[in-house]
Design goal:
The protein is an alpha+beta fold. 38% of the residues lie in helices and 33% in strands. It has four helices and eight strands; from the N terminus they run αβαβββαββββα. The chain has a six-stranded antiparallel sheet. The protein has a two-stranded antiparallel ribbon with strand order 2-3. The longest helix has 30 residues, at 2-31. It is globular. The chain starts with a helix and ends with a helix.
């Protein structure tokens, strides 16, 4: 009996570390910008979002009112530096060509381009907004366990 429990425990630990490694690899693309000069980097954790509760909240123009309980993390990465912007554009191009990500929305207005991507291949979904303005580039990345209704609310601005 001890042997069965040991095998189960080893399997669970392996699964947990595999899942953590996969989540880390997914966020590694964005967390690298935390170490780069000329980058504004904001990471809002689930703990901070819990403090907001269901209050009216807007993060960089994105309304998260009523869905803060579903969001695990929000990353906002912004730069005006040309070299960093080129790195960010390459990362966006890699994401947008990844078959796990689908384009939800594209918009262009007054020299600003906004694209929203969704990775819904796992239970935890990832929404990536790529905002390319004339003089700066911004990523807004939200991961969480969104229902379809919460995702719709997030994308339509809570209308």
């Amino acid at each position: 009996m001890k042997r069965v429990f040991s095998i189960i425990a080893i399997c669970l630990l392996s699964l947990t570390s595999w899942m953590a490694a996969e989540a880390d690899a997914q966020n590694k693309l964005f967390s690298k910008y935390n170490e780069i000069d000329n980058v504004d980097y904001i990471c809002i954790t689930k703990s901070m979002l819990k403090l907001l509760g269901n209050s009216s909240a807007t993060v960089n123009g994105v309304h998260i009112e009523g869905i803060t309980n579903a969001i695990d993390v929000i990353l906002i990465i912004n730069s005006r530096n040309e070299e960093v912007k080129e790195m960010m554009k390459k990362d966006y191009k890699a994401l947008s060509s990844n078959p796990d990500y689908e384009v939800l929305m594209q918009a262009k207005s007054d020299g600003e381009r906004i694209t929203t991507l969704l990775n819904a291949t796992k239970a935890e979904k990832e929404v990536v907004m790529h905002i390319d303005e004339k003089d700066e580039l911004t990523f807004i990345v939200m991961t969480g366990r969104f229902t379809d209704e919460q995702l719709k609310k997030l994308l339509d601005g809570n209308k």
